[in-house]
Amino acid sequence: MIHASHISKTYGRVRALDRTSFELLPGQVAALLGPNGAGKTTTIRILTGTIPPDTGEVHIGDIPVASQPLRARRRLGYLPEHNPLYPEMTPVAYLHHRGRLFGMDRKARSAAIARELDRCQVAPMRNRRIGALSKGYKQRVGLAAALLHDPDVLILDEPTNGLDPSQVSQTRMLITELAEKRTVLLCTHILPEVEKLCDRVLVLAAGRVRADGSPDELAHQHAGDPVYRLELKTNPSAGHAPAARELTRVPGVTSVTPSPEQPDDAPRGWHALIVTADPSAPDLREPLAGACADAGLFLREITRPRPTLEHVFMRLIQAPDHTPASGNDTPDEPAETPSGGHAA
């Protein structure tokens, strides 16, 4: 449903996007990740037709965004990070206003408003001034507005911003439900949220897609050398050095270092060690346990920690960039406005 082909954008001498390409399919929940200045905001603004790319093309379904922006926006729901609302309006009045922008007649608007107020749990506040609502309710009014015209594609920028833990859980369930019939692109800094919600992750850095795949695929492809964490007991006066020497002798081990997190009973001789292995080595848990037994070391725990998305993300964005791109979102881009952020 979203097809971006070789899109580039430059602000002065700063290249925010450099020939970036990706495609999102119906039913996918994808996350767009990247450090500040990676080009995420520019990407979203190009996808939503707020700004044009210098080169390249974006299609929402079969509709080219650059030449048919109004048609494309009718298939698109967008919740910006800084939710543009009219504080003097009530949620019902604002949603009627939004529905008129999309050309919905009064009967269709009323039915859609009732549906989305209920789905986004805003109905109890339907007749209160938006300016008097909590941040969480304002966020949900914005989500209701993005869903009002029943779009095929949803772009959500920090959708759980300002929500309490219960509301976060409800919003996650809602996004999962919405993705059954839509393509959802999620932009967030909350990586555990990405792991729970998304089946696709795009990591953007320096204006280019550095990685693209499921969270599990990225963890497998970009995790680095395999590591093992061991907790074992040694003579308190000897420290961890003798144990490290024994473990280093295991074929496939490349290094043994103390773990940054040591157990509470370290004064009694317990140590936590991190064993790094060659990527081509087989599973070393049994050989490591055998080496501890042969050396008379009491082993109480050995684990092979699964790389988290945060670990993979940091490796990707810190990797040297071999392209000429140097991405940054520029502060002089046009600011979001109530009509510009959501206009039909």
What characteristic shape results from the CA principal axes? Answer: elongated
Which fold name corresponds to the CATH topology of the largest domain? Answer: Rossmann fold
Beta strand count? 14
Instruction: Estimate what percentage of residues fall within beta strands.
Output: 25-35%
If classified by CATH, what would the architecture of the largest domain be? 3-Layer(aba) Sandwich
The largest β sheet comes out as:
6 strands, mixed
Look at the structure and give the mean pLDDT: 87
Strand order of the largest sheet: 6-7-8-3-9-10
Low-pLDDT windows of residues: 322-344
Distance between the termini: 18 Å
**Secondary-structure content class:** alpha/beta
Identify the CATH homologous superfamily of the largest domain.
P-loop containing nucleotide triphosphate hydrolases
Number of domains: 2
Level of helix content? 25-40%
Please give the CATH class of the largest domain.
Answer: Alpha Beta
- The string of secondary-structure elements, in order, is EEEHEEHEHHHEHEHEEHEHEEHEHH
Describe this structure in words.
The chain has 344 residues and is an alpha/beta fold. 33% of the residues lie in helices and 25% in strands. The chain has helices at residues 40-47, 69-74, 91-101, 106-119, 135-147, 165-178, 191-197, 215-221, 241-248, 285-294, 309-318, 338-342, and strands at residues 2-11, 14-24, 29-33, 55-60, 63-64, 76-79, 153-157, 183-187, 200-205, 208-213, 227-233, 253-258, 270-277, 298-303. The strands form 3 sheets. The protein has a 6-stranded mixed beta sheet with strand order 6-7-8-3-9-10. Strands 2-1-4-5 form a 4-stranded antiparallel beta sheet. Strands 12-13-11-14 form a 4-stranded antiparallel beta sheet, with helices on one face. The protein has 2 domains: 2-221 and 319-342, P-loop containing nucleotide triphosphate hydrolases (Rossmann fold, 3-Layer(aba) Sandwich), CATH 3.40.50.300; 227-303, Alpha-Beta Plaits. Strand 4 (55-60) and strand 5 (63-64) form a beta hairpin. The chain has 12 helices and 14 strands.
